[in-house]
Design brief:
The protein has a single domain, classed as Porin (Beta Barrel), CATH 2.40.160.40. The protein contains four helices and 16 strands. It has a 14-stranded antiparallel barrel with strand order 1-2-3-4-5-8-9-10-11-12-13-14-15-16. Strands 6-7 form a two-stranded antiparallel sheet. The chain is globular, with a radius of gyration of 22 Å.
Length: 339
């Protein structure tokens, strides 16, 4: 375990060194429920044949709440030439974000592929390399915007007069291509222990994102370093601590916490507590039945903004369904902790 800790710390330090200045991307609290968004190397790495999910987040704000929706799915297959020591994952996600009063909207569609290679006979140790390629649309409803030259400094009111602001006369819907890459390392130590760590880089090409045709405003690269440990405390209890570090354009975010899973016959009950450093305390609760997992979280805002937010944060729900078409998934090369 000491080598795992060194590996995680090294990736976190690397991520912090690559951070840049500017604004921040959309974030989730249930990072574990958005694997393709976190790292394309997770594509196809699960204990069934197919996986499909939806995520919803409503971020409380001082004006209109921000809302984020994601639908995603993935699968894997095993070409004969890889001799069952390797496999390929394929996946996709559709992302929609609606922010502010205007509103400012983001729609993104991506496809993902990952290659995983086992390093020992039973593939209990393997590494994965994944990529994501997609197209993003950003748009804003300029009819809902008020510009500086509409302010009447004499009457101290905004007028209905027209504006000469360049944004009003330019396109308010833009498209650009996006490219992500990531890698993970997975080790099933024994029937009671498993750990996994990785890092991804989003917006590799730093695409231009601007409503002003001549502007060279670009989306900065986003770095995500992450690690998780799974430990069976007993045949019916599993502990899953995790850590995520995100650095994007001068803003960083560190989330740590754990979920405790309790097996009760065919049910699994989830409960946990997470902390977004300096910002939110995040309790979690969930249930799993027939390979369908439903998780709920709520961000309790404890930052300096709590007086204005009244401790309100973001509500989040995720639904993940796994489909096991084959008679036995234990035979497959992707080795997971069985619980």
């Amino acid at each position: 375990m000491k080598y795992t800790l060194k590996f995680v710390l090294a990736m976190i330090l690397l991520a912090s060194g690559l951070s840049q200045s500017g604004a921040q991307d959309v974030h989730y609290s249930q990072m574990y429920a958005t694997p393709l968004y976190i790292n394309p190397a997770f594509t196809g790495n699960h204990d069934c044949d197919y996986r499909a999910a939806v995520n919803y987040r409503k971020q409380a704000y001082f004006t209109k709440p921000y809302e984020t929706y994601t639908a995603w799915g993935d699968t894997r297959f095993y070409p004969e030439f890889l001799r069952r020591n390797g496999w390929i994952g394929l996946g996709t996600h559709l992302f929609y974000d609606n922010a502010g009063d205007a509103p400012l909207q983001k729609i993104q569609a991506m496809i993902f592929s990952a290659y995983s290679q086992g390093f020992n006979i039973d593939n209990s140790i393997y590494g994965s390399l994944g990529v994501g390629l997609g197209i993003t649309n950003r748009s804003v409803n300029k009819a809902n915007l008020i510009f500086e030259d509409q302010w009447d400094s004499t009457l101290y009111v905004f007028t209905d007069n027209g504006t000469k602001d360049p944004l009003f006369n330019n396109s308010t819907s833009i498209f650009y291509m996006d490219f992500n890459i990531g890698m993970t390392f997975h080790h099933l130590v024994n029937e009671n222990w498993m750990y996994e760590a990785g890092m991804s880089i989003n917006h590799i090409t730093k695409p231009r994102e601007s409503f002003f045709g001549t502007s060279n405003n670009r989306v900065g690269r986003k770095i995500i370093a992450h690690a998780t440990v799974q430990h069976k405390l007993s045949d019916k209890v599993l502990l899953k601590p995790e850590v995520y570090y995100i650095a994007h354009m001068g803003s960083d975010e560190l989330i740590m916490g754990a979920n405790l899973v309790r097996g009760v016959e065919e049910l699994k009950l989830y409960g946990g507590l997470w902390y977004r450093f300096g910002r939110d305390i995040i309790p979690s609760i969930g249930i799993e039945f027939n390979k369908m997992t439903i998780m709920f979280t709520y961000d309790i805002n404890v930052s300096k903004q709590r007086l204005a937010s009244k401790y309100q944060g973001g509500f989040e729900v995720s639904i993940i369904k796994r489909f096991c078409a084959r008679k036995s998934t234990r035979r497959e090369p992707c080795k997971m902790l069985q619980f």
